[in-house]
Write a structure and sequence with these properties.
single chain; 2 helices; Transcriptional regulator, LysR family
Amino acid sequence: MGHQNLEWFGTDYSSMNIVATYNFIYNATFMVEKDIGYALCLANLVNTEGSRNLKFRPIIPEMSVDLYIVTKKYETFSSAVKLFINKIKEYKF
């Protein structure tokens, strides 16, 4: 999460104790499991079933962000990526 989004918290981010950032939520779960802090992420990216320290809690009031998938214009996709893109196109937002 970039610092540009921290205005959501209604505070100056310099007063927050940000100990780490992550690119993959899976990696961040290890820090959360060791009680280093909290990880902000989209819902249902990690299986929290049966975990002692992992639990999804929605931010209230709800916040939303626009997500984009960007590809090269003439990219050749694998069959798995083609299936993924088709599923996204089918989804009704």
